[in-house]
Amino acid sequence: MKKLTCFLLGALGTIVTAIALAIIVPQYSDYRAAAITGLWQPEIRPLQAAIEENILNNATVSGSGMAIGKHTNISTESRIALIKVTDSGAIIIKGENRGFMTGQVMVLLPELVSGKVLWTLWRF
């Protein structure tokens, strides 16, 4: 009986550990994604400012990303592999395929609301 109790306690401990890991690992992954993409935001701020200026000058999001020059001032620490600006001003950033955050993607979508530009952030 004592061996069975010990076995059941060990099995229960394993189940509790598995449940805890199932909760903690995705949250840690989300934290890492936010930390990595948070490093990118200062790098792309000049692009956002240029797009915001176009949106406010034209009073529309349409065409706000056109004629935006390629952003070349990217530090190697930011781990950005690609930055693309669409004609509608959306900024798409893809991270390098290194380490834990393989190919992290961030998308910023501008919107003109009551004379102000608001940005929606998506992380994948």
Overview in brief:
The chain has 1 helix and 4 strands; from the N terminus they run αββββ.
Key traits:
elongated, Glycoprotein, Type 4 Pilin, 124 residues, single chain, four-stranded antiparallel sheet, alpha+beta
Description of the structure:
This protein has 124 residues and is α+β, with helices and mostly antiparallel strands. It has one domain: Glycoprotein, Type 4 Pilin, CATH 3.30.700. The chain has one helix spanning 2-58; strands at 80-85, 91-95, 105-113, 116-123. It has a four-stranded antiparallel beta sheet, covered by helices on one side.
Integer count of domains:
1
Molecular shape: elongated
Strand order of the largest sheet: 1-2-3-4
The overall average pLDDT, rounded, is 80
Binned strand content: 15-25%
Distance between the termini: 51 Å
Number of helices: 1
Tell me the Rg in angstroms: 22 Å
The assigned CATH architecture is: 2-Layer Sandwich
Would you report the number of β strands? Answer: 4
* H-E order: HEEEE
CATH topology: Glycoprotein, Type 4 Pilin
Q: Major sheet, described briefly?
A: 4 strands, antiparallel
Write the layout of secondary structure elements.
Blueprint: H1 2-58, E1 80-85, E2 91-95, E3 105-113, E4 116-123
Antiparallel strand pairs: 1-2, 2-3, 3-4
